[in-house]
Amino acid sequence: MRVSTRLLVFFAVFGMFVLPAFSACTQSNLTAGVQASGALYGVWMPETTCWNGNFVVFAHGYVAPNQGPGVPADQLTIGGISLPATFNQLGYGFAASGYSKNGLAIIQGVADSMDLVQNILKKQLPLNRVYLIGASEGGLVATLSAEQLPHVYNAVGAACGPIGSFQDQINYFGDFRVVFDYFFPGVLPSSPVDIPPDVMTNWTAYEAKITAALAANPSAAAQLVKVMNAAVTSDPTTVGETILGALWYNAFATNDAVATLGGQPFDNHNRIYLGSSNDILLNLKVERFTAVPAALAAVKAHYETSGRLLMPTITLHTTLDPVIPYWQETLYTPKTLLAGSFLERTNLPVAAYGHCAFTGGEVLAAFGIIVLRDIGQSILTEIENTLVEPHRSDFLNAAGRAGLLR
Prior knowledge:
alpha/beta; disordered N terminus
């Protein structure tokens, strides 16, 4: 999930919600602070008499290395619904760590989210149940936590994350760049594995160059999407959106990943690319790279899931995600089977285009399943009575698709 601003702010905007006379909490109070790691955090609480003793902890998605510290404000609203305000209205505390680093921060996301629970929340409040939810990079943070930290969380929701193979996700972004360079040479400067600082600081100008190049050669753009088997729809504008989304991550994530992993992790030295009008020429001319062994080892040791879930885990993913493809979900399934934890996971595919492009109702329906799987109790009525139209109808439709209304 890309972030253009990094502000730790209070999002208690209640204009989109109804405040039912029964049960719904009416306050949302923010406390901000700094963790021992240096990460900034926020804790949002309903009024004391309304708190149900439970907490939702949010693991945020990717934030560019050149952004400032703090909880990314634009990730606290999904589908027009403010997460802190809504969960507070339902009686849950809400908390999020900004992590102690930007960029590739999965290790920090796991550690800082755990620290927030163990050393801040639990030392100040008598916690009952703690649920971790995360999106994009935070989806991997949440899944790794579900595999490693049963003493911290009771259940987890992981949305649109690279949970099947982190190495394959790295290669997806690298492949997109080298194949783009084959079809559109010279549009982006330098090497796909060593990004000049100018690309990040002047990304808007490069976006314009990419867009112009795609418009000038739509056949090449279509071949690029086909070779990458990337998600698009019948709307031609999604071709550009998909390509720009993948190239953004190559531009903003590559250098930080190299530094964090101790070497260059992208490897296509023996990749065979298919789908162009001349695959022989493509494979002869596309630029090739070999990953540094230390980087591959770091990915394997710290960023790959095992599939051994130790708590109920709900995964949510759009089927046409152009940034973190849906195949990440299908790769994760055999891991859970081999680990013997297949039944701990509930996967919710969302038939839509876009990265983490969920409606608020879909997110709340997934949360309803998290609670149901954890304590066997439905909170469907509580959620329904907290929302006004069109969010209420959206939630009920999503709940029906997820099987909550049966």
